[in-house]
Known about the structure:
Layout: E1 12-16, E2 19-26, E3 33-37, H1 51-56, E4 60-64, H2 81-95, E5 100-105, H3 109-118, E6 123-129, H4 140-151, H5 153-162, H6 172-183, H7 188-195, E7 215-220, H8 229-238, E8 244-249, H9 256-259, H10 261-275
Parallel strand pairs: 3-4, 3-5, 5-6, 6-7, 7-8
Antiparallel strand pairs: 1-2, 2-4
Helix pairs in contact: 2-3, 4-5, 5-6
Amino acid sequence: xxxxxxQTSTTQYLDVPExxxxxxxxxxxxxxxxxxAPGMGDVRAVYRFVxxxxxxxxxxxxxxxxxxxxxxxxxxxxxxxxxxxSDYVALIRHxxxxxxxxxxxxxxxxxxxxxxxxxxxxxxxVVAISPWAAEPKPNAVMGxxxxxxxxxPSLFGLFYSSLYKGGKPEDFKEYVATVKSRLRExxxxxxxxxxxxxGTKVDSAADRPKVQQPTLxxxxxxxxxxxxxRAEAEKFASTISGPTEIVMLEGAGHYPQAExxxxxASRLLVFLEKTAR
Length: 277
């Protein structure tokens, strides 16, 4: 599917109020920092094919697990996008980045927005991969199904797999097994349910008009999460005050960084070349 070997890394931890965030970092210490977070139910290794390409180009890249997910701790009082945004900010300050690009997927583009709004002199660009422009409002049947999926790691694994439309990487079976294994750990399905609660997914939308930095929106043309992926991307972009660029990734679904990682990496590198200090 691509010629890039997946990233292997050592987990580190950052203590923040209420818990600790798991992350890894690679690349030269003096490189422009890129901070990336996955979406709901996912783990930071979803960027495993993109990170090596950014590091090879001289960037310093950190990926973090969302609170309650992956290797981050459980038991948080808040799981909203703005709360996750505070974790971006804490990690940026911890790593000492004074020139940073923030990247989010699905749930976390709005968290990246919050970080950009809070650190306008540090964050030089925002990358939103498969962002929600507005919080979805499922009907009663869809709400019931979503609740069942959030409570069952096995059902979540099936749902997660269905969102890959642009091809699955060779290690996909093992990767999904890891996602499900993490969700079976105590407290993690509770975090997944909390992240999916009404009002949590896009509470950072209020920060979008504060973002003056350039924003790149990457959207799969076959993303099944949206009735009209391009319209969703355009609606999200229209709420950002700074300059925006939309790139539709032909044939990709909701996780293009793992489905078409070379295309995502090349677009990121062009964006970084224009915006990184």
